[in-house]
Amino acid sequence: MGDMFNAIEEEPDQVVNYFKEMIPQYAADVIYEMYTDNAVDILAYAKAKDLNQYLELLPAEAAVEIRGMLHYQDKTAGAIMSTEYVAITGNQTVRSALHVMKKEALDAETIYYIYVIDDEENLQGVLTLRDLLTNDDDALISDIMNRPVMSVDVQEDQEEVAQTIRDYNFIALPVTNPEGKMIGIINVDDIIDVIDEESAQDYSGLAGVDVDNLPGNPWQAALKRLPWSLGLLILGITTAVVISWYQTLIQKDTLMVTFIAMVMGASGNAGTQSLAVSATRIADKDDEEESTAKMVANEALTGLIVGFFSGILFAVITGIWQQDLDFGLILGLALLIAVTISNVLGCLLPIIFKKLGKDASNVPGALVSTISDLLSALIYFGTIQIFWNLYH
Amino acid sequence: MGDMFNAIEEEPDQVVNYFKEMIPQYAADVIYEMYTDNAVDILAYAKAKDLNQYLELLPAEAAVEIRGMLHYQDKTAGAIMSTEYVAITGNQTVRSALHVMKKEALDAETIYYIYVIDDEENLQGVLTLRDLLTNDDDALISDIMNRPVMSVDVQEDQEEVAQTIRDYNFIALPVTNPEGKMIGIINVDDIIDVIDEESAQDYSGLAGVDVDNLPGNPWQAALKRLPWSLGLLILGITTAVVISWYQTLIQKDTLMVTFIAMVMGASGNAGTQSLAVSATRIADKDDEEESTAKMVANEALTGLIVGFFSGILFAVITGIWQQDLDFGLILGLALLIAVTISNVLGCLLPIIFKKLGKDASNVPGALVSTISDLLSALIYFGTIQIFWNLYH
Fold first, then answer.
1. Do A97 and A132 touch, CB atoms closer than 8 A?
2. Does a structural domain hold residue B169?
3. Which of A166, A202, A366 has the CB atom closest to B272's CB atom?
4. What SUPFAM superfamilies has UniProt attached to this entry (chains A, B) (predicted)?
5. Could you tell me if A130 lies within 8 Å of chain B, comparing CB atoms?
6. Could you say which residues from 226 to 255 on chain B have a Cβ atom under 8 Å away from some Cβ of chain A?
7. Does B391 touch chain A (CB under 8 A)?
8. By CA distance, what is B263's nearest residue in A?
9. Chain A residues within an 8 Å CB radius of B219
10. Is residue B313's pLDDT more than 90?
11. What part of B 19-58 touches A (C-beta under 8 Å)?
């Protein structure tokens, strides 16, 4: 039963309801059989009353451990680590280490790595089962262990942990507390969950809708999308205000309205591309300070180039269609400016989010395109007005 | 050197250039030291002449294996599998299996699983090192092995393989050919690469720009974005044509232009949300046939609900602003229709992509919003025209 719950794919806040349906003692037994990290994930959603009941029914040691882990902050190494690992001391031999392995093999979540600790539980070295199997039975652990050992702090962000496991192809990674004591391990299967979660978040962020927890019916779906949809609609009033400023200009020649959607579309598209690229760069980057200015400059330049060629195409299309090359060139210039500004916007928003302590990947594409619409309206009618005044 | 190249983070098409800079025999030595799957990834980018030179300098057996794997299709199990694994037969004892392990431990990419094969190399069962360590040394492998063994076909899509490893928390998964012979294993670290690749693709698809291979300078970046930007600009001409149809209507009261951007923005946003949700549903779903119609119906209903409340808000805003409730109600109705249609559009496009044999996650958000702009223009001015004709 514990095994089944270890592998269960449902959301923890659902699974905790299954526990409620069980006799408490049975639920406690299942929890005890589960790996601690999985049990903690689920118990984080239990009501305080239920939680206390389960913990009282658990063996004291297990209860203390779960209580401790429930205090680790969400999305840190501590929250996803497991406390079932194999640890030995450096003065043991390979033979005695293999003996420990055999004894603990049934409980530990992974037995591929064996960690070497000293009397204060400080992490000293690591061995793989491969090392044990390929060394002489009488070899001393401290002579054959690998060191230094890469480890993560218990408060490390889970995304950083995922990156380390990914970069080094580890199957598990030890977790230490700030004093350097080993207190758990993070396994690669927990990291796959983190990667899935983070990538669903990035995708959801860009789309402006949570795709990780899809609701069952259209009412729930609509309720989840409404706040965001209504918010953007209200923000869109600013664009309506800008267009209303140019009523007199538009009345002089309503033809100019024909092409506003193309300029807004091209700018919105450029802004979204710039957003996706910038958010990815920020997420990938370790030393961000020196190159933020460079990133903005690069996106501005990319926008200028894309805007230049888009502007030429736009000028040719509108010029030929309207048999008026001057008009085409004015529109092309407006597009060039609008695309460049939107490119900078798409790059600035994730930088601003990051400065505010938010996740740079959480800037929705629709926020960029709504602000881009506003700026495009200003730039489009503004450019036409300037040239109108020059020539009429 | 082989270890360094196994862990190298650069793109294979870059790494192959390092080989070119080496003396061919040295390159062959490095290739020989590498795990076969990693070497094959890189050699897939080598020129035929260089490839043949390396293969001639390799031991015959290794050359045959690499040549064989180069023929597996990209993004299948065969292309990402490794051929370094430990296999034993069922009539061995735990002791002799451990002996085999010790001998092969240095070469195999993972020694956590030991596969049991018969004389025809058909996969019979699997053991973990844990099983070996916790069973008596004299136990017969066929008595203690786990069966049936979950395996994947060599032609299986890598995404399916990733899903299986994820669902069952495996560290490795055996690969069989169509006759059931075991021919390789896929390790969890290779699967993490697949998951990263697929999620970067989904994100890139939605954004309409490749974020997986970020170019170094603005020129390259612009060149990558230009085809897409120009293509959408050309598609946008259709929207301009639609708006030009309504010139006479717009001339009657240019005020209506003020709110077109809000309707296009709200519809585009709704369409993108619907796209992200639908593409995710399609990717997650196994039995798609029965519920495609239901998915479209659900999105239409979600669009109606979001459109209804957005329409009311829009009617109130525009009605109060223009001191004309009738005008507000007409605009609100237009928004309701436009949002609903865009929701259906965002859901239909990934379905159509899938039917055409393309990846449903590759529908760009900007394609949805460009088509949505066109439809919104039609619906917006069309609705106003109908009521104009009714009341004037």
1. yes
2. yes
3. A366
4. CBS-domain pair (SSF54631), MgtE membrane domain-like (SSF161093), MgtE N-terminal domain-like (SSF158791)
5. yes
6. 226, 228-230, 232-234, 236-237, 239-240, 243-244, 247, 250-251, 254-255
7. no
8. A233
9. 305
10. yes
11. none
Name the residue range of residue A350's domain.
Answer: 218-391
In chain A, residues with a C-beta closer than 8 Å to the C-beta of B221 are 277, 298, 302
pLDDT at B280: 86
Q: What pLDDT was estimated at residue B190?
A: 86
Does any domain span residue A358? yes
Q: What pLDDT does B1 receive?
A: 66
pLDDT digit string, tens, across residues A206-230: 888 888 777 778 888 898 889 889 9
Bridge partners, residue B182, by sequence? B176
Q: Which residues of B touch A305 (CB under 8 A)?
A: 218-219, 222, 226
Number of domains in chain B: 3
B168 touches chain A (CB under 8 A): yes
Q: How far is CA A323 from the centre of its chain?
A: 50
User: Which of B204, B222, B251 comes nearest A306 by C-beta?
Assistant: B222
More confident of the two residues A287 and A71? A71
Residue of A nearest to B335 (CA): A233
Domain co-membership, A141 together with A226 = no
One-letter amino acid of B277? V
Q: Point out the residue among A265, A273, A370 whose CB comes nearest to the CB of B209.
A: A273
**Looking at residues B115-122, what average pLDDT do you find?**
90
The answer to whether residue A202 is domain-embedded is: no
- Highest mean pLDDT range out of A62-71, B211-220, B270-279? B270-279
- Interval A5-34 mean pLDDT: 80
Judge whether A169 is closer than 8 Å to chain B, CB to CB.
yes
Best mutation target, B102, B250, B302, B313, to test chain A (most A CBs within 10 A): B302
> Are residue B62 and residue B90 in the same domain, yes or no?
no
Residue A281, domain CATH: 1.10.357.20
Is any Cβ of chain A less than 8 angstroms from the Cβ of B266? yes
Residues with Cβ within 8 Å of B151's Cβ and at least 6 positions away in sequence, in order, are: B123, B173, B174, B175, B176, B182
> Which residues pair with residue A154 across a beta bridge?
none
Is position B204 within any domain? no
Mean pLDDT of chain B: 87
Listed in order, strand segments (DSSP E) in chain A are 87-88, 113-117, 123-128, 152-153, 172-176, 182-187
Tally the C-alpha atoms within 13 A of residue B122's C-alpha that lie toward its C-beta: 9
| More reliable by pLDDT, A24 or B48 | A24
The Cα-based distances of A85 to A104, A132, A148, A183, A189 in angstroms read: 8, 16, 19, 9, 15
Instruction: Quick: pLDDT tens for B238-271.
Output: 999 999 999 999 999 898 999 999 999 999 999 9
B contacts of A226 (beta carbons < 8 Å): 305-306, 309-310
In eight-state DSSP terms, residue B360 is G
Instruction: Tell me which residue has tokens 């054959």.
Output: A144
**Given this model, what pLDDT does residue B330 score?**
94
**Whether A145 and A259 share a structural domain:** no
End-to-end CA distance of chain B: 83
Among residues B196, B229, B257, the one where a domain terminates is B196
B65 and B149 both lie in a single domain: no
Per the CB < 8 A criterion, the answer to whether B303 and B343 are in contact is: yes
Q: Please give the pLDDT value at position B72.
A: 78
Q: Please, which residues 176-235 of chain B have a Cβ atom closer than 8 Å to chain A?
A: 188-189, 191-192, 195-196, 199-200, 202-204, 206-209, 211, 214, 217-219, 221-222, 225-226, 228-230, 232-234
Say if residue A369 is in the same domain as residue A224. yes
